[in-house]
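Lab notebook, bench 4. Still working through the backlog of constructs that have no structural model yet. Next entry is a single chain of 432 residues. Request: give me the structure tokens for it.
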Amino acid sequence: MHNTGEAVSTITQDLDQSGELRRRARERTPGGVHSNVRLDGPDVVLARAKGSRLHSVDGVDYVDYLLGQGPALYGHAPEFLTSAVHEASCDGLIFGGQSELEVRAAELVCETLGWAEMVRFGLTGTEAVQAAFRLARAVTGRTHVIRFEGHYHGWLDNVLLADHDGAWEAASAGQVASHLDDFTVLPWNDADALGTVLERDGERIAAVIMEPVMINSGVIEPETGYLERVRRMCSRHGVVLIFDEVISGFRVGPGGAARRYGVTPDLALYGKALGGGYPVSALAGRADLLNRIGTGEVNHSGTFNAWAPGMAAVIATLEHVRDEPPYTSIMAHGGKLMDGIREIGESFGESLRVEGLPVAFHVSFGDVEVTDYRSLHQLDLKRYASLASVLVEHGVWVARRGVWFVSEAHGSAELDDALTRFEMAFKDWLGR
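Model written out:
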């Protein structure tokens, strides 16, 4: 067990300033937050983020394993990134025309991925998904798309889903349910199920979209041979294979999941780590497909697409991925952190399940083999969510859904603090 003799101030700090700011926020902002993902988040107001830590307005520090939902591959506000963006900002933000920065950024994306021939930049992963759908429908002349249970592709009407007693339906009031009619939802990691649908309906299916490693829910890897079979079936039926690598891209390695698992999609979507924390997304893929946008046949527009500071962020991030790759450091820290969390659970006689990749992993309670959304939900996810709230109280900033992200900025001091605080939080949580 870890040394708990040194008091951690986070559990005794008053949150007076956070409380007052949260009260004011609720008066002018629905729910007091600007993304519904944060509605069940900690009732804390943050003042700054640097490296691997967050600091609240109340003077509390948190070891951060959420990393803004994953973008901060090198930690918060690394000097190489903020300097590059500041320099670019001094020369202008948006031009309404082309810049050298966007040319260099596009070249770096394609070189770093190793398989993509062209790229179009945007701001968010949500909009990149929609661009991929439009392009796939244009090149195939078909309308239907196959997707998978538990995979997240944005919050718009045609992609936002919720599981209602086994049926995947609209997740929000006001959502137009008919916009989901062109989608079939299948269990992931089940190539036979996909093959059955493609054999039956292949002539009307434009695309298959998936997270090639299911990080958003459970950090679940593809089973051996699964992606290869999907690739072969899509090619046989003339279906565009789309990898949603908004989370996995550049996080699981310089070539993303496509290179990690050795399977090349037709199109792929990137975001989050692509800009190191700045809002940038990308649609990348085969030139013969993306050129349909370049001719004007398929529309893809946006005032802030390839905005200059965002392109500077892409260049700075990917140059560091090339010249100072963070993956060895991240893997080492993540592996030790995973082992330490398991050991703490065992020391209290609890079955803490810690699985995934050291760059991103999942923590919950249970002892089942997890291969897809259904098996993930055989774990006691609600019990872990309650633990996550106590972890935040003790200075470990994590998501209630169980996904932990690791950055290059996490070092030995953070590892020691995180495990010490985790143990104290666990003991406190068990006593409640």
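Notes after review: Confidence is low (pLDDT under 50) at residues 4-12. The two ends are 20 Å apart (CA to CA). Flag for follow-up if needed.
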